[in-house]
Amino acid sequence: MQKMRWLFGIYLALAGMASAQTTFLAAQPVWPAGRETEKNLFVGFRASFVTPTSGNALLRLAASTEYRAFVNGEYLGQGPARGPHGFFRVDEWPLTKRLHAGTNVVALEVAGYNINSFAWLDQPSFLQAEVVSDGAVLAATAGAGFETAVLPERVQKVQRYSFQRPFSEVYQLTPGFDRWRSDLAAPFAAVKCTVQPVKALLPRRVPYPDFAVLQPITWISSGAVETGVKVSRPWKDRSLTAIGPQLGGYPESELTTIPSLELQTVRNRTNVPANKPYAASSALRLGKNEFHIMDFGTNLTGFVGAKITAHNKTRLFFVFDEILSAQGEVDFKRLTAVNTIACEVQPGTLTFESFEPYTLRYLKLLVLDGDCDVTAVQLRELANPDATKARFVCSDERLNRIFAAARQTFRQNAPDVFMDCPSRERAGWLCDSFFTARVAKDLCGDTRVEKNFLEAFLLPAKFPHLPNGMLPMCYPSDHCNGQYIPNWAMWFVVELEEYLDRSGDRAMIDALRPRVLGLIEFFKAYFNDDGLLEKLPSWVFVEWSAANKFVQDVNYPSNMLYARVLDAAARLYDLPDLARQAEQMRATIRRQSFDGEFFVDNALRKAGKLQVTRNRSEVCQYFAFFFGLATPATHPQLWQRLTHDFGPQRQTTNAFPEIHPANAFIGNQLRFELLARAGLGQQILDEAAGYWLYMADRTGTLWEHNAPEASCNHGFASHAAHICLRDVLGLYRVDTVHKTVTVRFLDLKLDSCEGTVPTADGDIALRWWKAGDKLAYHLTVPADYKVEIQNLTGRACVQK
Fold first, then answer.
1. Cis ω for the linkage preceding 666 (within 30 of 0)
2. Which of 603, 666, 604, 596 shows the shortest CA–CA distance to 630?
3. d(Cα 500, Cα 572) in Å, to the nearest integer?
């Protein structure tokens, strides 16, 4: 442990953690006295100051969980970027252009959740904030200028949003509830704060979202509902029923209201198509038991809002989802999350916006009591702003739509870490990150988000509730039940090797050496006499398919992956013994798992003897080829079957029905990698349409599964953008560390393609088109970059 801390110190020094960006001039962390561990407390902080006569004013702040900032009542932004246990990232917001002459008001709303989740860590609440201008402190928490109040409009004792995220949102709103953000004379019941322990601070590093405000495209239907419908077995998610020592929240018996149960007693009585363009200025009238459904045109993530004029006391629900049901309904519980925001609104006019981000294409406005007019329905986006830097356009419009959906998927899943989904979980998942990280370098031109993501696994002294050496399956997250995915920790090491190639960040790799070797030490306890991992603990995960039923006792895909881990560690840290162990593992797996036709998924220990089963999955074959246990040369018959008989068409041909089909995560992704290695460009193009086009056309994003039964916006699926740029455009390898570009032209039934990827040294732009029997191209690269051209088209290649 002492050596690990020493390495952390070296890493922090090399990474420049002591920069001014992580230093407060005067502010200290504070919170209302004695309430720093209270659950779901919504707190307002306000500072007033006179516009400085010169200099650049900025707001610098850090918080344990989410905050929202305003300047003179106008929206400024939200944060923070997330850090690991015991570390907090610092945001800095320029203020000068937003100030007016005289006195200005900066207002902050901060959530103190204090429950375990995958999205925000369960750590005592605090805010540390200051307004400064060229070294002068204009206001600071625990100093002059800031005052604090507990905000009453957000109902405290409500159910969680999901098992993975903290509390849902329920509000009791009165016109003028938000006046305190800009008017110092508005009611603001100030409370005493106490200074909290000193915090370890980190730079934000990742870009700030631009928080674009978007409105629905179409008002698609209206109707009426009936209430009081009897439900014999209402849906009660574990996030409602399992509150206790391992899952924080308020018990069901203590909740002020339970929207997820009430909405199940509501059923559409009519649902009349409208199909009109949505006009923000036109009022949507809603009487008791009436609704309107809006379509934003594509899946989006952000903060839902509207202007509401209540004519009497009104209960308005914002209900949302990524898709419509077959009946044209918005099913708030489809995602096993509470996809609704409940607002009780007193008579008058006010503007409301959710505090937490949500993911939706469709929004249903539903009134169950009272009546109101709703205008200016909107979603304020929360997305990575750099994802638009890359460009891809080809002569096949289907691929263009897939690329657009992949980009949209990425930007919503990579604001500060690489998330699995921006909806149900908002968690930084390993394995997903292996794929999303490639896309980040392609679209954004840097590795800043990946550095933040990996840094979170580096800095904590230990991970609570997990055995020594094991890594969290997602992080920054709490895992109070002690669950982990050993396979995902393996993918972490595999990603590290690619991260070094992408970034050249040797300091990070060296600092993580104790983590990697600690993980290898953890797995030593599970080796059997054959030199394979057996009876791996906790949640052994191969992919979302039948393959996950075959994970004991010896799971061959897990062992294939671990052999790659040993190889990667051997190369990263010059440990040749690990490489020799990896090769021995591969030889044993080939001998035990390959049955002459296919690789078998698992073997079971019976009466002390290991017996290979007949369980065979499609994804197991992809693992074998992806991790080097098989090649087209060593296993030609199997390769022929995989390339010709498997793929999206297998859903209709039912070829080899005894081989359990793969799913989107991760089998289909690995399949594309194998096709790319073989240079099968046209097959990649055709299968891309088969696997992804229906997703892109339905939600504008790419999904967790092949069907829409779960998240329809999953970070790993953005890897389709990497495939478009690498295998269709032809930017096969862009090495910004060594300043080389490898262009590989494949034989495609396309007339033309062009695109751009950003780098720190300048854009790389490629355009190619067919000119008679030749392939013409134009390539622009930054100065000092070397170029290699690989032409697999069968045509003469001409540079223009």
1. yes
2. 596
3. 9
The answer to whether 747 touches 793, Cβ cutoff 8 Å, is yes
Architecture of the domain defined by 2-154+175-203: Sandwich (2.60)
CA atoms within 13 A on the CB side of 336: 10
The CA distances from residue 665 to 329, 377, 716, in Å, are 28, 35, 8
The HSE-up count of residue 80 (CA atoms within 13 Å, CB side) is 29
167-212 residue pLDDT tens = 999 999 999 999 999 999 999 999 999 999 999 999 999 999 999 9
* Residue 192 burial (10 A CB sphere; 0-12, 13-18, 19+): exposed
Name the one residue in this structure whose structure tokens are 């194998």. Answer: 674
The domain covering 730-800 belongs, at the CATH homologous superfamily level, to Maltose phosphorylase, domain 3 (2.60.420.10)
Residue 205 corresponds to which amino acid? R
- pLDDT at residue 304 is higher than 70: yes
For β-strands 602-606 and 218-226, DSSP reports them as unpaired
- Gap between the Cα atoms of 452 and 466, Å rounded: 21
If one counts every other C-beta atom within 10 angstroms of the C-beta of residue 290, the result is 18
Give percent of the chain with pLDDT exceeding 70: 97
List of residues 6+ apart from 706 with CB closer than 8 A: 663, 664, 668, 691
The CA-CA-CA angle for residues 226, 230, 233, to 5°, reads: 135
Give me 241's structure tokens.
């029923």
Given a contact cutoff of 8 angstroms between Cβ atoms, the answer to whether 552 and 558 are in contact is no
Could you tell me the CATH superfamily of domain 213-227+266-381? Galactose-binding domain-like (2.60.120.260)
45 within 8 A of 27, measured Cβ to Cβ:
no
